[in-house]
Amino acid sequence: MKCVAIGDMFLNEEAFREEINKSGLFDSYQGFTWKGDLDRVATRTLIRKIETEGSEAYPLPEDIFKAVVDADVVFVHLCPIGQEVIQQAKHLQYIVSARGGLENIAVMQAQAKGIHIIHCPAHNAHAVAELTVGLMICETRNVARANYALKQGEWRESYPNSGNIRELRSSRIGIIGFGTIGRLVAELLQPFHTTIFVSDPFVDAKEIQAAGCIPVSKEELLKEADIVTLHGRIGPNDPPIIGKKELASMKSSAYLINTARAVLVDMDALVHSLETHQIMGAAIDVFPKEPLEANDPITKLDNITITNHRGGDTVDSCIRSPELLISYVEEAFKTGKTRYML
Protein backbone atom coordinates (compact mmCIF):
# COMPACT_ATOMS: atom_id res chain seq x y z
CA MET A 1 0.00 0.00 0.00
CA LYS A 2 1.48 3.32 -1.11
CA CYS A 3 1.23 6.42 1.09
CA VAL A 4 1.86 10.03 0.06
CA ALA A 5 2.08 12.90 2.56
CA ILE A 6 2.10 16.58 1.66
CA GLY A 7 3.32 19.02 4.26
CA ASP A 8 3.24 22.80 4.13
CA MET A 9 4.32 25.97 5.91
CA PHE A 10 2.35 25.06 9.06
CA LEU A 11 2.73 21.29 9.24
CA ASN A 12 5.97 20.04 7.77
CA GLU A 13 6.33 16.78 5.89
CA GLU A 14 8.73 15.39 8.51
CA ALA A 15 5.95 15.42 11.12
CA PHE A 16 3.82 13.24 8.85
CA ARG A 17 6.74 10.97 7.96
CA GLU A 18 7.70 10.29 11.56
CA GLU A 19 4.24 9.09 12.58
CA ILE A 20 3.56 7.23 9.33
CA ASN A 21 6.85 5.31 9.48
CA LYS A 22 6.31 4.55 13.16
CA SER A 23 2.91 3.03 12.38
CA GLY A 24 4.23 0.44 9.92
CA LEU A 25 0.93 0.62 8.01
CA PHE A 26 2.38 1.23 4.55
CA ASP A 27 4.74 -0.54 2.15
CA SER A 28 6.05 2.67 0.60
CA TYR A 29 6.10 6.35 1.49
CA GLN A 30 6.60 9.49 -0.56
CA GLY A 31 6.72 12.93 1.03
CA PHE A 32 6.34 16.43 -0.41
CA THR A 33 6.20 20.02 0.77
CA TRP A 34 3.63 22.33 -0.81
CA LYS A 35 4.31 26.09 -0.67
CA GLY A 36 6.45 25.60 2.41
CA ASP A 37 8.41 28.81 1.87
CA LEU A 38 5.46 31.21 2.30
CA ASP A 39 5.61 33.75 5.11
CA ARG A 40 2.66 34.17 7.50
CA VAL A 41 1.10 37.04 5.52
CA ALA A 42 1.16 35.10 2.25
CA THR A 43 -0.12 32.04 4.08
CA ARG A 44 -3.16 33.94 5.35
CA THR A 45 -3.95 34.95 1.76
CA LEU A 46 -3.60 31.34 0.64
CA ILE A 47 -5.92 30.08 3.37
CA ARG A 48 -8.53 32.70 2.54
CA LYS A 49 -8.41 31.73 -1.14
CA ILE A 50 -8.92 28.05 -0.26
CA GLU A 51 -11.77 28.88 2.11
CA THR A 52 -13.58 30.93 -0.54
CA GLU A 53 -12.71 29.01 -3.74
CA GLY A 54 -12.41 25.50 -2.37
CA SER A 55 -10.41 22.58 -3.72
CA GLU A 56 -9.88 24.21 -7.11
CA ALA A 57 -8.17 27.31 -5.69
CA TYR A 58 -4.66 26.12 -6.60
CA PRO A 59 -3.44 23.63 -9.23
CA LEU A 60 -1.04 21.00 -7.93
CA PRO A 61 2.59 20.90 -9.08
CA GLU A 62 3.12 18.06 -11.56
CA ASP A 63 5.23 15.89 -9.25
CA ILE A 64 2.67 16.02 -6.44
CA PHE A 65 -0.20 15.44 -8.88
CA LYS A 66 1.43 12.28 -10.27
CA ALA A 67 2.22 10.94 -6.81
CA VAL A 68 -1.33 11.45 -5.53
CA VAL A 69 -2.87 9.87 -8.63
CA ASP A 70 -0.79 6.74 -7.97
CA ALA A 71 -1.29 6.59 -4.17
CA ASP A 72 -3.55 4.43 -2.02
CA VAL A 73 -3.62 6.88 0.90
CA VAL A 74 -2.85 10.62 0.89
CA PHE A 75 -2.15 12.73 3.97
CA VAL A 76 -2.56 16.50 3.56
CA HIS A 77 -2.98 19.67 5.58
CA LEU A 78 -3.62 22.70 3.36
CA CYS A 79 -2.67 21.23 -0.01
CA PRO A 80 -5.75 21.03 -2.28
CA ILE A 81 -6.98 17.71 -3.61
CA GLY A 82 -9.27 18.77 -6.43
CA GLN A 83 -11.64 17.17 -8.88
CA GLU A 84 -9.09 16.34 -11.58
CA VAL A 85 -6.77 14.59 -9.14
CA ILE A 86 -9.61 12.47 -7.80
CA GLN A 87 -10.92 11.66 -11.28
CA GLN A 88 -7.53 10.37 -12.35
CA ALA A 89 -6.63 8.60 -9.10
CA LYS A 90 -6.19 4.89 -9.83
CA HIS A 91 -5.96 3.34 -6.39
CA LEU A 92 -6.88 6.10 -3.94
CA GLN A 93 -8.82 4.74 -0.96
CA TYR A 94 -8.34 7.41 1.73
CA ILE A 95 -7.69 11.14 1.83
CA VAL A 96 -6.51 11.99 5.33
CA SER A 97 -6.59 15.66 6.28
CA ALA A 98 -4.88 17.23 9.30
CA ARG A 99 -7.48 20.00 9.26
CA GLY A 100 -10.99 20.17 10.63
CA GLY A 101 -12.34 21.86 7.50
CA LEU A 102 -12.53 20.11 4.14
CA GLU A 103 -12.57 23.15 1.87
CA ASN A 104 -9.35 22.02 0.18
CA ILE A 105 -10.80 18.62 -0.82
CA ALA A 106 -13.33 17.88 -3.56
CA VAL A 107 -15.51 15.93 -1.15
CA MET A 108 -18.44 15.08 -3.42
CA GLN A 109 -16.18 13.74 -6.18
CA ALA A 110 -14.21 11.67 -3.67
CA GLN A 111 -17.34 10.17 -2.16
CA ALA A 112 -18.73 9.41 -5.62
CA LYS A 113 -15.63 7.27 -6.26
CA GLY A 114 -15.89 5.54 -2.91
CA ILE A 115 -12.85 7.32 -1.47
CA HIS A 116 -13.05 7.78 2.29
CA ILE A 117 -12.10 11.11 3.83
CA ILE A 118 -10.71 11.23 7.36
CA HIS A 119 -10.24 14.65 8.91
CA CYS A 120 -9.05 16.04 12.22
CA PRO A 121 -11.26 18.76 13.73
CA ALA A 122 -9.81 17.98 17.15
CA HIS A 123 -6.28 19.13 16.28
CA ASN A 124 -6.85 22.79 17.19
CA ALA A 125 -10.24 22.46 18.83
CA HIS A 126 -9.06 23.01 22.38
CA ALA A 127 -6.99 26.03 21.34
CA VAL A 128 -9.92 27.69 19.55
CA ALA A 129 -12.41 26.84 22.29
CA GLU A 130 -10.13 28.30 24.97
CA LEU A 131 -9.65 31.51 22.99
CA THR A 132 -13.41 31.76 22.44
CA VAL A 133 -14.18 31.72 26.15
CA GLY A 134 -11.25 34.05 26.79
CA LEU A 135 -12.62 36.56 24.26
CA MET A 136 -16.05 36.42 25.88
CA ILE A 137 -14.49 37.55 29.15
CA CYS A 138 -12.07 39.96 27.49
CA GLU A 139 -14.79 41.80 25.56
CA THR A 140 -17.53 41.84 28.18
CA ARG A 141 -15.17 42.80 31.03
CA ASN A 142 -13.17 45.37 28.99
CA VAL A 143 -9.82 43.64 29.54
CA ALA A 144 -8.12 44.85 26.35
CA ARG A 145 -9.55 48.37 26.62
CA ALA A 146 -8.41 48.74 30.25
CA ASN A 147 -4.97 47.38 29.36
CA TYR A 148 -4.59 49.83 26.48
CA ALA A 149 -5.77 52.80 28.55
CA LEU A 150 -3.39 52.05 31.42
CA LYS A 151 -0.46 51.81 29.03
CA GLN A 152 -1.46 55.23 27.71
CA GLY A 153 -1.41 56.63 31.25
CA GLU A 154 -5.21 56.69 31.62
CA TRP A 155 -7.15 55.19 34.52
CA ARG A 156 -10.27 54.57 32.48
CA GLU A 157 -13.62 54.27 34.27
CA SER A 158 -16.13 54.56 31.40
CA TYR A 159 -16.65 51.85 28.76
CA PRO A 160 -19.21 51.13 26.02
CA ASN A 161 -21.00 48.66 28.28
CA SER A 162 -20.68 50.54 31.59
CA GLY A 163 -23.73 49.89 33.74
CA ASN A 164 -24.55 46.72 31.82
CA ILE A 165 -21.61 44.40 32.59
CA ARG A 166 -22.74 40.85 33.33
CA GLU A 167 -20.94 37.84 34.71
CA LEU A 168 -21.00 34.75 32.53
CA ARG A 169 -23.15 32.96 35.10
CA SER A 170 -25.99 35.43 34.53
CA SER A 171 -25.60 35.43 30.74
CA ARG A 172 -27.34 33.39 28.09
CA ILE A 173 -24.77 32.14 25.62
CA GLY A 174 -25.76 30.99 22.15
CA ILE A 175 -23.55 28.56 20.23
CA ILE A 176 -24.19 28.32 16.49
CA GLY A 177 -22.63 25.09 15.25
CA PHE A 178 -22.26 22.12 17.58
CA GLY A 179 -19.34 20.25 16.08
CA THR A 180 -16.09 19.50 17.91
CA ILE A 181 -15.26 23.11 18.81
CA GLY A 182 -18.81 24.14 19.63
CA ARG A 183 -19.11 21.21 22.04
CA LEU A 184 -15.80 22.06 23.69
CA VAL A 185 -16.93 25.67 24.18
CA ALA A 186 -20.08 24.38 25.88
CA GLU A 187 -17.97 22.08 28.05
CA LEU A 188 -15.61 24.89 29.06
CA LEU A 189 -18.58 27.11 29.94
CA GLN A 190 -20.23 24.59 32.25
CA PRO A 191 -18.26 25.63 35.39
CA PHE A 192 -19.52 29.20 34.88
CA HIS A 193 -23.10 27.90 35.41
CA THR A 194 -24.35 29.83 32.42
CA THR A 195 -27.40 29.01 30.30
CA ILE A 196 -26.31 27.69 26.91
CA PHE A 197 -28.47 27.67 23.78
CA VAL A 198 -27.37 25.67 20.74
CA SER A 199 -28.47 25.93 17.12
CA ASP A 200 -27.32 23.22 14.73
CA PRO A 201 -29.76 21.64 12.27
CA PHE A 202 -27.42 18.66 11.79
CA VAL A 203 -27.34 17.62 15.47
CA ASP A 204 -30.20 15.83 17.20
CA ALA A 205 -31.92 17.82 19.94
CA LYS A 206 -31.44 14.97 22.43
CA GLU A 207 -27.69 15.08 21.84
CA ILE A 208 -27.64 18.81 22.58
CA GLN A 209 -29.69 18.30 25.73
CA ALA A 210 -27.36 15.52 26.86
CA ALA A 211 -24.52 18.06 26.74
CA GLY A 212 -26.41 20.28 29.18
CA CYS A 213 -27.57 22.76 26.53
CA ILE A 214 -30.91 23.92 25.15
CA PRO A 215 -31.61 23.18 21.45
CA VAL A 216 -33.20 26.12 19.63
CA SER A 217 -33.54 27.54 16.12
CA LYS A 218 -31.03 30.11 14.95
CA GLU A 219 -33.75 32.76 15.05
CA GLU A 220 -34.62 32.03 18.68
CA LEU A 221 -30.96 31.87 19.68
CA LEU A 222 -30.23 35.30 18.18
CA LYS A 223 -33.24 36.78 19.94
CA GLU A 224 -32.46 35.32 23.38
CA ALA A 225 -28.65 35.14 23.68
CA ASP A 226 -26.51 37.71 25.46
CA ILE A 227 -23.41 36.34 23.74
CA VAL A 228 -23.50 34.62 20.33
CA THR A 229 -20.48 32.55 19.32
CA LEU A 230 -20.03 31.02 15.86
CA HIS A 231 -18.65 27.53 15.24
CA GLY A 232 -20.41 26.42 12.07
CA ARG A 233 -19.27 26.07 8.47
CA ILE A 234 -20.74 27.21 5.18
CA GLY A 235 -20.02 26.36 1.56
CA PRO A 236 -18.01 28.59 -0.79
CA ASN A 237 -21.14 30.21 -2.27
CA ASP A 238 -23.35 30.27 0.82
CA PRO A 239 -24.40 33.57 2.45
CA PRO A 240 -22.91 34.48 5.85
CA ILE A 241 -24.53 33.02 8.95
CA ILE A 242 -24.62 36.51 10.44
CA GLY A 243 -25.69 39.38 8.22
CA LYS A 244 -27.72 42.58 8.50
CA LYS A 245 -30.97 40.75 9.27
CA GLU A 246 -29.42 38.55 11.97
CA LEU A 247 -27.65 41.44 13.67
CA ALA A 248 -30.92 43.37 13.75
CA SER A 249 -32.60 40.49 15.56
CA MET A 250 -30.01 40.37 18.36
CA LYS A 251 -30.43 42.19 21.66
CA SER A 252 -28.97 45.69 21.87
CA SER A 253 -27.03 44.39 24.89
CA ALA A 254 -25.65 41.34 23.03
CA TYR A 255 -22.13 40.47 21.87
CA LEU A 256 -20.95 38.52 18.82
CA ILE A 257 -17.85 36.27 18.95
CA ASN A 258 -16.23 34.81 15.82
CA THR A 259 -13.15 32.61 16.13
CA ALA A 260 -14.24 30.29 13.30
CA ARG A 261 -14.30 31.60 9.71
CA ALA A 262 -14.38 35.18 8.43
CA VAL A 263 -16.98 34.24 5.81
CA LEU A 264 -19.51 33.49 8.54
CA VAL A 265 -20.05 37.22 9.18
CA ASP A 266 -20.95 40.10 6.88
CA MET A 267 -18.24 42.41 8.21
CA ASP A 268 -19.70 45.59 6.71
CA ALA A 269 -22.99 44.86 8.45
CA LEU A 270 -21.15 44.14 11.70
CA VAL A 271 -19.23 47.42 11.56
CA HIS A 272 -22.47 49.33 10.95
CA SER A 273 -24.16 47.47 13.80
CA LEU A 274 -21.33 48.38 16.20
CA GLU A 275 -21.12 51.99 14.99
CA THR A 276 -24.83 52.50 15.59
CA HIS A 277 -24.80 50.49 18.85
CA GLN A 278 -27.33 48.07 17.44
CA ILE A 279 -25.46 45.43 19.46
CA MET A 280 -23.25 46.04 22.48
CA GLY A 281 -19.96 44.64 21.24
CA ALA A 282 -18.01 41.93 19.44
CA ALA A 283 -14.80 39.94 19.55
CA ILE A 284 -13.35 38.85 16.21
CA ASP A 285 -10.28 36.70 15.46
CA VAL A 286 -10.73 36.17 11.70
CA PHE A 287 -11.09 38.66 8.86
CA PRO A 288 -11.90 38.58 5.11
CA LYS A 289 -8.54 40.17 4.32
CA GLU A 290 -5.54 39.42 6.49
CA PRO A 291 -3.57 41.22 7.70
CA LEU A 292 -6.01 44.03 8.43
CA GLU A 293 -5.26 47.33 6.77
CA ALA A 294 -4.35 50.14 9.16
CA ASN A 295 -7.37 52.19 8.10
CA ASP A 296 -9.90 49.35 8.32
CA PRO A 297 -12.99 50.84 9.99
CA ILE A 298 -13.13 47.98 12.49
CA THR A 299 -9.89 49.20 14.06
CA LYS A 300 -11.53 52.55 14.92
CA LEU A 301 -14.32 51.04 17.01
CA ASP A 302 -14.20 51.09 20.80
CA ASN A 303 -16.79 48.34 21.29
CA ILE A 304 -14.87 45.45 19.76
CA THR A 305 -11.93 43.25 20.73
CA ILE A 306 -9.87 42.09 17.77
CA THR A 307 -7.09 39.51 17.60
CA ASN A 308 -5.02 38.59 14.56
CA HIS A 309 -6.11 34.99 13.85
CA ARG A 310 -4.71 33.48 17.01
CA GLY A 311 -7.30 30.72 17.40
CA GLY A 312 -5.15 27.70 16.61
CA ASP A 313 -1.81 29.28 17.35
CA THR A 314 -0.56 26.85 19.99
CA VAL A 315 2.25 24.31 19.93
CA ASP A 316 -0.29 21.56 20.62
CA SER A 317 -2.46 22.30 17.57
CA CYS A 318 -0.18 21.11 14.78
CA ILE A 319 2.12 18.60 16.43
CA ARG A 320 -0.74 16.38 17.63
CA SER A 321 -2.56 16.06 14.32
CA PRO A 322 -0.40 13.40 12.56
CA GLU A 323 -0.51 11.22 15.66
CA LEU A 324 -4.30 11.58 15.90
CA LEU A 325 -4.71 10.86 12.20
CA ILE A 326 -2.66 7.67 12.36
CA SER A 327 -4.87 6.40 15.18
CA TYR A 328 -7.95 7.12 13.04
CA VAL A 329 -6.42 5.39 10.00
CA GLU A 330 -5.44 2.33 12.04
CA GLU A 331 -8.99 2.03 13.31
CA ALA A 332 -10.42 2.47 9.80
CA PHE A 333 -8.14 -0.28 8.45
CA LYS A 334 -9.19 -2.66 11.23
CA THR A 335 -12.91 -1.95 11.50
CA GLY A 336 -13.90 -0.09 8.34
CA LYS A 337 -14.94 2.98 10.30
CA THR A 338 -13.47 5.61 12.57
CA ARG A 339 -14.23 8.97 14.12
CA TYR A 340 -14.38 11.90 11.69
CA MET A 341 -14.61 9.75 8.55
CA LEU A 342 -16.87 10.56 5.61
Strand elements, count:
12
Low-confidence stretches: none
CATH architecture of the largest domain: 3-Layer(aba) Sandwich
Structural class: alpha/beta
Spatial strand order of the main sheet: 8-7-6-9-10-11-12
- Summed up, the domain count is 2
What's the helix-strand series? EHEHHEHEHEHHEHEHEHEHEHEEHH
On the 0 to 100 scale, the average pLDDT is 93
Distance between the termini: 21 Å
Task: Give the CATH superfamily of the largest domain.
Answer: NAD(P)-binding Rossmann-like Domain
| Beta-strand percent range | 5-15%
CATH top level of the largest domain is Alpha Beta
Task: Write out key terms for the chains shown.
342 residues, alpha/beta, Rossmann fold, five-stranded parallel β-sheet, 37% helix
Protein described:
The chain is an alpha/beta fold. It folds into two domains: 2-123 and 315-335, Rossmann fold; 125-306, Rossmann fold (3-Layer(aba) Sandwich). Helix content is 37%, strand content 15%. The strands form two sheets. It has a seven-stranded parallel beta sheet, sandwiched between helices. A five-stranded parallel beta sheet has the order 2-1-3-4-5, sandwiched between helices. Helix 1 (13-23) packs parallel to helix 14. The longest helix has 16 residues, at 125-140. It is globular. The mean pLDDT is 93.
